[in-house]
């Protein structure tokens, strides 16, 4: 009997609840009231459960009806989602969009764009990875991600193409209790070399044989930017961090910006890129997301510089 349950019946049931009456549901569905009543009655007969108490002027959900209402909504929502996704596929829209984001990229920008993405492409699930160095490229190379927002490596691996996004400001910092924090003026590189440097390490082999920004022979290596931040805050070393991740700590005096020899005031700017396979460029949703990240990251970068 349950195999005969139709979407029309479920929609009539849900709409009757939402509108408070069969007549209201009929107006909403542009159907005759008798048809709506019949659909709901047939549904009750097929599942063997009374969904409404009809003894009053208006139908009232039974206890069983309240429980089954959620199931009915889930079924209808699932079918509507499947139809929307199939329609998107037929028009070239991606069935899912997987994106890997470098930990150096401002994640608040990603959040804002993700919120807008949900409104623009409600039928396209978004899968996000957060990685560093070669780890931000690897999911794109092996096909787990369609788009990478990267910047940690000075080269783009073969088979990928890139588009420029706004750069990320990068500066050297140490805790206010660290010996380097007491030095006024530019700090010589040989002085930096006397202290442990905290370095982000690569989970992949893509940067094997390359060192980026390492100025000390004594290093502690971590694969997580938040772990690096925690070690910095406790004075266990010095190191480079994206300015947007430490600006509040610098303003509060918990971290001190180090003025390093041959590094311009305000730190360096790390170029950020959107990368994807040459043979598999992003579809409409991926293209929209890249454009939004470009615009929003540029706005965020300008706001940071103004601050």
UniProtKB/TrEMBL annotation:
Residues 5-62 form the HTH lysR-type domain. InterPro entries: LysR_HTH_N, LysR_subst-bd, WH-like_DNA-bd_sf, WH_DNA-bd_sf. It comes from the Bacteria. Pfam families: HTH_1, LysR_substrate. SUPFAM superfamilies: Periplasmic binding protein-like II, Winged helix' DNA-binding domain. Keywords: DNA-binding, Transcription, Transcription regulation. Coiled coil: none annotated. Belongs to the LysR transcriptional regulatory family. This is HTH-type transcriptional activator AllS. It comes from Paraburkholderia hiiakae. The lineage of its organism: Bacteria, Pseudomonadati, Pseudomonadota, Betaproteobacteria, Burkholderiales. The gene is allS_2.
